[in-house]
Specification:
Blueprint (H helix, E strand, L loop, with lengths): L1 E9 L4 H17 L3 E6 L8 E8 L2 H8 L6 H13 L2 E9 L5 H4 L1
Antiparallel strand pairs: 1-3, 1-4, 2-3
Helix pairs in contact: 1-3
Length: about 110
């Protein structure tokens, strides 16, 4: 399993647009073989930081999902939410492997 952690710098005045963007991507990841663990939005502290975590069974499965970017109309529409609203100022992806409690791995 591989987990993608996306760290966002968001425009706090456009958090509603970011939530629309996030809800759409949660659906798309789940529809295309991944498991979305959710978006984590500003609450206290820095008001411009957000995270997303989602997993795929393997790097190959993630790469297959990535082939849809810029081609699939649903992916293009989801990115349009971000692009037209300006809710995301920048983001960075990191790939990690989870270490889970033993009872969750079985």
């Amino acid at each position: 399993m591989i987990t993608c952690v996306v760290e966002y710098v968001v425009d706090p005045s456009k958090i509603d647009a970011f939530e629309r963007f996030g809800r759409r991507w949660m659906e798309l990841v789940d529809l295309h073989g991944g498991t979305h663990h959710g978006y984590f939005l500003p609450s206290e502290g820095a008001s411009d930081k957000a995270l997303a975590l989602f997993s795929f069974p393997s790097l190959a499965a993630y790469e297959q999902y990535r082939t849809l970017f810029g081609k699939d109309p649903d992916f293009i529409e989801a990115d349009r939410i971000r692009d037209e609203s300006g809710c995301v100022l920048r983001y960075e992806r990191t790939f990690m492997r989870p270490l889970l409690p033993e009872h969750a791995e079985g």
